[in-house]
Amino acid sequence: MGSIKKEIVVEAPVDDVWAIIRDFGQGPIRMAPGYVTECRLDGPGVRVATFVNGTVLRERLIALDEAEHRFVYSIVGDSVAPVHNNASMQVFPHDNGSRFVWIHDVLPDELAVAFGVGMDEGLRVFKETVEGTVTAKS
User: Please, are residues 48 and 60 in contact by the beta-carbon 8 Å criterion?
Assistant: First the structure.
């Protein structure tokens, strides 16, 4: 199984970062405006996120742990056609800011490269957005 782990340090309080991550309906747009162009709820616990490159992902909420600042979701349906996809996002205190950890586990393994590239760009925009310096690329 391909597993991708990305971490960044964000100069913002944990509660501020968590408020964005935990927002199932609009979190992706709040995280990466311009990189995520649309996000809408599609039934209980399912959202549809559209990215600047035209990719559309249906994502199911798996777990939301307020105490641990941890969010877990899975891509469902045929939007990317992974055999398996599970992801988690978690926020930890770090110095005067936050450490954000994002993990994706995918099958087939070959999807790990594409997911890693997308995660890198999403995290770049997320950091700039939270720190107030956003310059989204198209």
Answer: no
Find, among 3, 17, 26, 16, the residue nearest to 90 by Cα. Answer: 17
Peptide bond into 44 cis (omega under 30): no
- Give the integer Cα–Cα distance in Å for 38 and 25: 10
Nearest-angstrom CA–CA distance, 117 and 24? 22
**Cα separation, 73 vs 99, whole angstroms:** 19
For domain 2-130, give the fold: Alpha-D-Glucose-1,6-Bisphosphate; Chain A, domain 4 (3.30.530)
Query: What is the rounded CA–CA span in Å between residue 97 and residue 15?
Result: 10
Q: Which amino acid belongs to residue 45?
A: G
Q: What tens-digit pLDDT sequence spans the chain (138 residues)?
A: 689 999 999 999 999 999 999 999 999 999 999 999 999 999 899 999 999 989 898 999 999 999 999 999 998 876 665 578 899 999 999 998 999 999 999 888 888 888 899 899 989 999 999 998 544 444
How many other CB atoms are found less than 10 A from the CB of residue 18?
21
Q: Which of 88, 101, 98 shows the shortest CA–CA distance to 130? A: 98
